[in-house]
Amino acid sequence: MPKDIVARGLAGEVPDLVAWNADGLAVVVTQQHDTGEILMVAWADRAALAATLSTCWATYFSRSRKRQWVKGEESGNRQRVVEVRLDCDGDCILYRVDSPGPACHQNRRSCFSQRVDADGSVHCDRPVVE
Questions:
Q1: In the chain, what are the helix, strand and coil shares in percent, each to the nearest 5?
Q2: What is the CATH number of the domain that holds 33?
Q3: Is residue 75 a part of any domain in this protein?
């Protein structure tokens, strides 16, 4: 059973509470703060989390680019971070954001645009944002 985190309310304690994987990364779920809509899932390393906390702009670690990136640095669809939360055992980070534009690289509001029906068929039900 995973070990639950024990938050003490001390400044700077968050990197020690996150259960970083062997590559020094943790999963980040990104959620629209006012609707609860899940927008995307990405990764963060310690530096990306620190940048997110200090700038209030969603910052991630790209495994393909092997570097930190700020959401929207190329597309302009930036995500202002309203709140950061950890799950109970520290292996997942939640960024609650204000994301006025598309979050998906396919120019869709959410990366979760592929609905899977009970018969196993998959349907794209989220339009491209114009």
A1: 10, 35, 55
A2: 3.10.20.810
A3: yes
Does a structural domain hold residue 69?
yes
Q: Give the pLDDT confidence score for residue 2 in this predicted structure.
A: 67
Nearest CA among 100, 108, 112, 104 for reference residue 127: 108
**Number of independent structural domains in the chain:** 1
Q: Is the separation of the CB atoms in 101 and 129 below 8 Å?
A: yes
* 76 conformational bin, left if phi > 0, alpha if psi -120 to 50, beta if neither: left
Q: What is the pLDDT of residues 58-75, one digit of tens each?
A: 999 999 999 999 999 888
- Mean pLDDT along residues 109-121: 95
- What lies within 8 Å, CB to CB, of 112 at 6+ separation is 38, 39, 126
15 DSSP β-pair partners: none
Range of the domain at 57: 18-102
The continuous run of DSSP H or E covering 15 comes out as helix 14-17
Identify which has the larger pLDDT, 29 or 108. 29
